[in-house]
Sequence to fold (141 residues):
Amino acid sequence: MAEFVKDVMTPGVVAVRPDASVVEAARLMRGQNIGDVVVADGQRVVGVVTDRDITVRAVAEGRDPYAVSVGSVCTPDPLTLAPDDPVASAVALMREHAVRRIPVVEGGLPVGLVTLGDLAEARDPGSALADISRAEPDATG
Fold:
């Protein structure tokens, strides 16, 4: 079984600055087939924006996605983990704070993301959540 966050995380991070537009973040998500982007200001993670954040906090409010900044719709001050933190710490943080993803930071820079799906794959590869996490995105939608 995986012992450290670095063993289960999805390496590499797609990041945007807080002043990037919601459209820019959405296009990155589409291009990378992902549902979240780390928001970083220099060498500091300041938030995480998800496709749901864009939908609920911008589109559903009727805000102009070209004018709305990612920083204004992201979840600010996210929990973070280090690559050498134990996997048990990731599980405990997700449980305690009811979050599905946590940026992994090393030397102030985001180096990966650990998600609920990553943990499911590591802990119970035969689970429905692990199967869903491994599935390719729906090309029709």
